[in-house]
């Protein structure tokens, strides 16, 4: 599910364990309610994995729901934190004025640390004073490894952290600390894994030149939690996580018929497409896939319904101009706000970022119909598994919202007769229409065959069709001999 966790109550109880709701999309679902309230949580990961943003969002979501918070930063300046937060729509300055947030920029004298004159008592006194002033319920200590590295003594590090943990236990303030973790440095802060009640590990990997951030909960004391790795993205207003394994099959069944925009095709489909269905149009290049899809899009927009068109191969302008030849006017529907294009290169983003952006568009635009042209291009998001992951999760999300989907697939002549989607998704497709070009007696004939249409007594014969200057015209049954080039 892609919905922000309910914040009607910022503190919840799961199996007797009090939880602090993070308010971060998907994270509360993974944590079965939130972080352990009044406890210490560790977020570790390498540079650029999102540690500061994840911790800051925990503070921000609490502050706007009347749980004031403190950010103690060992690395970033306070002004830098505030400016960076604004890029995500978080107004830290406003929260400070309302006494819902306090940002402390820790200035540590390295000489005092090296001489052995430094301990955490001074910082704890500052935190204690600010916590009392704003009645803080949450604390983020960002970049604690900076001071630990200055101590350069494992015994001192553990003693100082234990004293800090004791203070937290006495004050029962839900606290998150962030630590950088480098390769070859894996066990340096291993003791923190045992000291903290919850440990969240972030990383960033590059596969086929596409970077993906991932989150994994290593432990959450006293509570169940999702144990898998979860890809996530940072987009618009914060961290966006769409847990793959928690997606449930709770969508409704197929709905009423909706016209394909072509009368003869409706007849062959025994009524047209079904609402809340997933439909695939597959064929080699030049068989008319996009024209068939756009005929449907134009038809439903003429009835005042909205459609979102995701295009992985052409720009909006190219599609609109290309459809003028067969007499399909898409520009009017765009101007009327009934049709929205989302053209994007598949390799520009990872699966998670593609999904997050599309889900945001769907929530914002609220279409009843969605087109993906073409799913074969999704392999360029990384590999076949990435394409499968993207399309399957998109289909499930659309079905949960009652959105009818139309997909196109660029088929390969050499793969004819094999799995029809090219990414092993045939079982979740409700209707499959195959388009082919066949040469016969010196002419190229376009053929249409309905391979399947779930719960429908559809035609099982090949029909000729033409793309005219007035749309697609489907003719009679094809009976000529085939010549395959």
TrEMBL record:
InterPro entries linked: Circadian_clock_KaiC-rel, KaiC, KaiC-like_dom, KaiC_dom, P-loop_NTPase
MF terms in GO: ATP binding; hydrolase activity; protein serine/threonine kinase activity
Organism annotation: Sedimentisphaera cyanobacteriorum
Keywords: Hydrolase, Kinase, Phosphoprotein, Repeat, Transferase
Residue span, KaiC domain: 18-255, 256-485
Record protein name field: non-specific serine/threonine protein kinase
Enzyme Commission number(s): 2.7.11.1
EC primary class: transferase
Underlying gene: kaiC
Pfam families per the UniProt record, alphabetical: ATPase
Top-level taxon: Bacteria
PROSITE patterns xref list: KAIC
């Amino acid at each position: 599910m892609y919905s922000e966790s309910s914040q009607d109550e910022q503190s919840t109880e799961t199996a007797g364990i009090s939880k602090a709701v993070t308010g971060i999309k998907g994270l509360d679902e993974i944590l079965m309610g939130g972080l352990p309230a009044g406890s210490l949580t560790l977020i570790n990961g390498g540079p650029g994995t999102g540690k500061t943003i994840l911790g800051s969002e925990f503070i921000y979501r609490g502050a706007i729901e009347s749980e004031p918070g403190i950010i103690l930063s060992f690395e970033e300046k306070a002004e830098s934190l505030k400016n960076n937060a604004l890029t995500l729509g978080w107004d830290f300055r406003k929260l400070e004025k309302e006494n819902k947030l306090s940002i402390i920029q820790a200035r540590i004298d390295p000489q005092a640390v090296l001489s052995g004159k430094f301990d955490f008592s001074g910082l704890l006194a500052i935190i204690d004073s600010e916590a009392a002033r704003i009645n803080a319920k949450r604390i983020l200590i960002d970049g604690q490894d900076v001071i630990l590295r200055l101590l350069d003594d494992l015994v001192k590090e553990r003693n100082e952290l234990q004293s800090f943990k004791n203070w937290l236990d006495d004050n029962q303030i839900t606290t998150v600390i962030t630590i950088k973790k480098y390769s070859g440095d894996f066990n340096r802060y291993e003791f923190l894994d045992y000291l903290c009640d919850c440990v969240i590990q972030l990383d960033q990997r590059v596969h086929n030149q596409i970077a993906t951030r991932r989150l994994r909960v290593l432990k959450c004391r006293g509570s169940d939690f999702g144990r898998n790795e979860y890809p996530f993205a940072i987009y618009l207003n914060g961290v966006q996580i769409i847990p793959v394994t928690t997606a449930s099959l709770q969508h409704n069944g197929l709905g009423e018929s909706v016209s394909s925009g072509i009368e003869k095709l409706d007849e062959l489909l025994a009524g047209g497409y079904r609402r809340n269905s997933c439909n695939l149009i597959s064929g080699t290049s030049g068989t008319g896939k996009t024209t068939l899809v756009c005929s449907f899009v134009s038809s439903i927009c003429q009835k005042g319904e909205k459609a979102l068109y995701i295009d992985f191969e052409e720009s909006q302008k190219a599609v609109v101009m290309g459809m003028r030849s067969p007499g399909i006017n898409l520009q009017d529907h765009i101007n009327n706000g009934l049709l929205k294009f989302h053209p994007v290169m598949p390799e520009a983003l990872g699966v998670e970022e593609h999904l997050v952006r599309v889900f945001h568009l769907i929530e914002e635009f609220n279409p009843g119909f969605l087109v993906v042209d073409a799913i074969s291009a999704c392999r360029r998001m990384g590999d076949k598994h990435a394409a499968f992951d993207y399309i399957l999760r998109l289909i499930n999300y659309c079905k949960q919202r009652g959105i009818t989907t139309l997909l196109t697939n660029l088929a390969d002549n050499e793969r004819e007769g094999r799995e029809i989607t090219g990414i092993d998704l045939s079982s979740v497709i409700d209707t499959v229409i195959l388009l082919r070009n066949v040469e016969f007696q010196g002419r190229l004939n376009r053929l249409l065959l309905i391979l399947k249409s779930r719960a429908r007594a559809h035609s099982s014969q090949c029909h000729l069709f033409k793309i005219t200057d007035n749309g697609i015209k489907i003719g009679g049954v094809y009976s000529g001999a085939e010549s395959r080039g």
